[in-house]
Structure formats: structure tokens, C-alpha cells
Amino acid sequence: MHDFSHILLVSDYDRTLTGFDAAIPPANLEAIARFTARGGAFTVATGRSRPTFRVPMASGIPVSAPVIVSNGAALWDPAADAMTLLHVLSPEALAAVRALQARFPDLRLELQGPGRHRCFGRDDLRDAYLARYRVEPDYRGWGDLDEPVLVACFYAPFLDPAHMRPQDRIEADERPFQEICRLVAEQWSGLLEAVRSMPRMVELLPAGCTKGAAARQLADRLGRPTLLCAGDAPNDLSMLEAADEAFIPSTSDPAILGYGFTQVCSCDDGAIADIVRLLESRP
């Protein structure tokens, strides 16, 4: 029987652990149970904030280590409901965000903290998405920021109450977000990290804050010398590159193909189960 006690397996959530229908394939749950029974540690790294990930976690995702939320800006222990690591946007970084907000007034801005989303720009479909996860938008403006800001996220207006799939992106819609990434790289690279999780949006984190850095730090904390990571989108690239071995579903965003990562089956068919089966097949 295999001993996985040296391994931390970190999976992206949407369209890696889950299928396109947002449900976790039963095969994944069965495989994670086998993996952890043999000593492996499993957790999730998601671009979702703690507020938007509490409902999925309550459904029983079988993590055995703190969850990486907000694209690496925080570690969250769901059992204790405690944040064990926070990377916070500085006042200077927030000033840069305000400058970008003035330059792109038609985009919705959300300042995402450990407990709430401060929102600028009405978008009923985006609010419906937040309501699905029991998050009430906070429209109090820039005054009285009474909790730290981990991520500043710019969105185009939602087209339906769910995120657009990467395969369905429209190039014309991408231009404002490409421009934000360019401006961050040229003017604020010491303050901000621009991350693209999905089409029609960009997330701004503290500089140097990535899923990859958080995953490696977590593996070191847990004393797990082998880090395995799975993801499907550009925001997963940092942790795929940081991993000792990286896996991508066959349904991944084309932007992360061609890096030599190990390809497994589609997210709908149980990509994480495919990874565990591969580990079990090795001597």
C-alpha cells in the first residue's frame, strides 16, 4: 500500500475539483478519501474570497489542511474559522487602485476582505452571484474601510449569474483588463500583483502574493516535502510552476497548455480522481 505522508496535494476549486456544473464529481471525493487514508494531506487553493467560499466549504469538501483563498492572499482554517495568514493591500496600493478606478469608471470594483466585499458600481447579476454564496454587497464607498483589503477586483458587468468560461472569452471585452495589467506592470509592480482568474475580470493582490507562494509556504509549514498541484486557469500558473509535479484537466484554459504539465481527464470526469489513480499506479 502506498504511503502518501510526504505529499501535500493542492487543487484549484472551480473546474478542477468541481465540474463545469459546480458540483464535485463523486469519484474525486472517493479518491481524496483513499489519498488521505494513506497519509496524504489535501487542500484547496481558490481565487474565491473567504466570504464566497464558506458555502462550498460547508457542503463537506474533505480538506485536511488550511485552505488557500483569495488567490494566495490568505490561509483559512475552516474548522476553526480562523485566518492563519493575511497579505493586505497597503495604503499606497489602495491609492493605485483608486487611480485605476478613475481611469476605468465603467468597471465594477470590489474590495474583498476576510469578512465582506466593499462594492462600487451596481451590477444586479454580480449581486445575484454573491447572494448565491450568502454574501451581501457593502456599498458604503471608500469611507470607513473597517477591515483589511486582501484583493481589489475589477469586473465587467456580468452577462449571466455565473462567471464566463475561459473558452468563451471575447477579445474585445478583454482590452480593459489587459490595459490594467499593463499599467500595474509599468507603474505599480512594487505594490500590486495582477492576476487573471477568468475572462472579463482582473484581481489585484499585494505584490509577490500568489497561489504558488502560498502553496509552497503551506507545504513547508506542514512538513510535506512533496508539493503536488492541480489547476486549470492562468491564476493557477504560479502554483503549477511551484509544484514538484503539476496536473491540469483536459478542459483547462488554453493559456496554460504547453508548459509540460501532466494532463489528466476533464474536470467533469473527475480530474482529482485521475491524479490519485496515477499516484497509486506508481511503484
Could you characterize the architecture of this molecule?
The mean pLDDT is 94. With 283 residues, this protein is an alpha/beta fold. It is globular, with a radius of gyration of 18 Å. Helix content is 33%, strand content 21%. It has a five-stranded parallel sheet with strand order 2-1-11-12-13. It has helices spanning 13-17, 26-37, 50-58, 91-103, 124-132, 171-187, 211-222, 237-242, 271-281, and strands at residues 7-12, 41-45, 67-69, 74-77, 82-86, 108-112, 117-120, 151-155, 192-195, 201-206, 226-230, 245-249, 262-264. A hairpin with a 4-residue loop joins strand 3 (67-69) and strand 4 (74-77).
Topology, please?
Blueprint lengths: L6 E6 H5 L8 H12 L3 E5 L4 H9 L8 E3 L4 E4 L4 E5 L4 H13 L4 E5 L4 E4 L3 H9 L18 E5 L15 H17 L4 E4 L5 E6 L4 H12 L3 E5 L6 H6 L2 E5 L12 E3 L6 H11 L2
Parallel strand pairs: 1-2, 1-11, 11-12, 12-13
Antiparallel strand pairs: 3-4, 4-5, 6-7, 6-8, 8-10, 9-10
Helix pairs in contact: 2-9
The amount of beta strand, in percent, is: 15-25%
Taking the alpha carbons of the first and last residues, their distance comes to 10 Å
Most strands sheet: 5 strands, parallel
Low-confidence stretches: none
Class from secondary-structure proportions? alpha/beta
What is the oligomer described by this structure?
A: single chain
| Number of helical elements | 9
Shape: globular
Query: Strand order across the biggest sheet?
Result: 2-1-11-12-13
